[in-house]
Amino acid sequence: MKKIKKLVILLLVCTAFSCDENVDPILYDNVNGQTGISFLTSFTSVIVPEDGITVTVPVQITTVSTSERSFNVSVNEEASTGSSADYVVGDLIIPANEYEGTVSVTFDNFDNLEDLATFNLVLELALEDGIASYNNGSTTLSYLKKVLCNDLTLVLNEDAYADERNWEITDSSGNIVVQCSDYDDCPSGEPSGSVAPAQYTYNFNLPDGDYTFTIYDSYGDGMSDGNIVGNYRLSCSVIVHAQGSGDFGGSESTMFTVNE
Question: Is 192 in a helix, a strand, or coil?
């Protein structure tokens, strides 16, 4: 049924815009065209050690320049929690001749952070006239004081097509250490109910180290079936390693660290 809907939409688009092979294509100008900027991730989990930490949030821009460019990033104070003394936010820097750059954020307030409490820092693009944001105009950094935890829990709140879901966790060398593919080779976990949509909860242990969590949808429309938009959350105690809405398309990846 989903494939039929997609085909109908395609036919409607072709009818409306005459899908004519003789129509001149629109040429994209990556130098003088519209400049758009987007954060490449909507969520970053930060564990603050005693000596502090600096994290970089990746960004992408639609035009290229022969010189380095910098843009301002603002803090959404209403959406953020914690104290402004917890962090220092740098400028958004795009190196010369590049389409990607970073925003550096330093967390250096370990002694004043409450134990087992999670705080959110919400950053937004503060752009001048003529420059627009697209996709992710904001990003959230969830930070907390370092706590040791190796027993992780993954919760998937599914749409009506949970059978399209695959996920895996890889280590720093790219080796798969935990996976769930078509309900085979999955860690312990059962759905909360037999009628879709269901909540699936998986529990497993990971040694200290760096990892990447990737969630896939075989159809390419994420955990979204047109009526239900699901979500996922990978956590360990109060630490949130990865989370996201179900409208991620074909896949979404988040890097995280366990106890290091």
Answer: coil
